[in-house]
Amino acid sequence: MPTASTHTPPQPPPAVQANQHIYSDYFDEEFARTLDENIMQLLDRVWFRSKLVGFEDFPQPNNPERPLIFASNHSGMAFPWDAMVALAHLLRELRKPSDLPRPLSAPLLSQSVLMNPFLVKDFWKKCGCVDATTLNFETMMYYQDHNLMLYPEGVPGIGKGFNRKYQLQRLATSIVRLGIQHRTDIVPFYTINGEYLNPYAYSWDWINNLSKKIGIPFLPLGPIILLVLLQPWCFYMAFPAQLTFVLGQRIRPYELTDKAPEDLTREDYLALSEQVRQRMQHELDAAVQTHGQKPYQWRQLWQRMKENRRYFPFFLPWAWPALYQEFERQYVYQGRRNFRLDLDKPGAWWRMVWRNPLSLAFFIPILGWIPIAIRGYRGHRLGKRAPKPNA
Hints:
Elements: H1 14-18, H2 29-48, E1 51-53, E2 69-72, H3 81-93, E3 101-105, H4 108-111, H5 123-126, E4 130-131, H6 134-140, E5 147-150, H7 155-158, H8 173-181, E6 186-192, H9 205-212, H10 223-230, E7 244-247, H11 266-291, H12 298-307, H13 320-333, H14 348-355, H15 369-376
Parallel strand pairs: 1-7, 2-5, 2-6, 3-4, 3-5
Antiparallel strand pairs: 6-7
Helix pairs in contact: 2-3, 2-13, 8-11, 13-14
């Protein structure tokens, strides 16, 4: 009597099997949720006022054995608040943990503590980020616990100047290659108004090449750069742009070619990734026209500040250094869980500064950068070769 056959998923290659530890090395979902409850919800409610457009029926995997690949445009010349806000908003909205995307992030963000928000060590990785190397991307494709989120423009995306706002840079070919090999869909979403987090900042490749040597992926030259010297907290500064995330039409890369994956050449993948880029650019332009004409919504911002005045000053960027360092002190160094920062009590900001004296350095002109740099580069070797990013 014949027996029913069972489908056995293909085993990962040996290099991927040896690399599987990256999925759980740092990720701490409780850290991400506690951070959202204590900090990100307030910042989002007042400062960023983010909106999800088209996410009501959240996309589900077409291949149950592989995660979906979410892809978005980067905000040029800005600290990656766009990704932080998007993930925090999705974290509190999605009902299934597997729907939440795990981000692949530029390796330069985790190479030094300086590139973590207000020197919170391993911030990105604790929130679920994995360095965006080719091997890591291939490894993550063998997990179904979470979807994946990619910014396929890479460092050139965050390093593009304001003169190239909303212009998608060349996409990594790996997003198309792995989508084809694993027959999983790419789901684009578009970050609107993120370009105005740090407006009128421009980019020169030769300056960015120098800044990378000290672990900073780009150096924006614009209105904020002088403030960064006088007030170091401005290094992480974000203007109050209302961030809007617009879901696009899913892309099936395996339907864009008749060739088998093993027959596709580097040139084929470049052409396919350009085809995907053009499709995404068309949708991005339409989303900007609909949602990007009034990036700041000043009247709404003022209204939100009045409604949340009992939390003053914590929704303002100059209060964020003490806020993030107090969160790290309680969660990481004291090991507390299920706590609430008393943001509405009189004198709360002063108490945070007292408990976290390094936060004062963020307000000391020029000299404040000395203790910040010491903490930011502790254990980091300048000039250390970064892992190879996605191609």
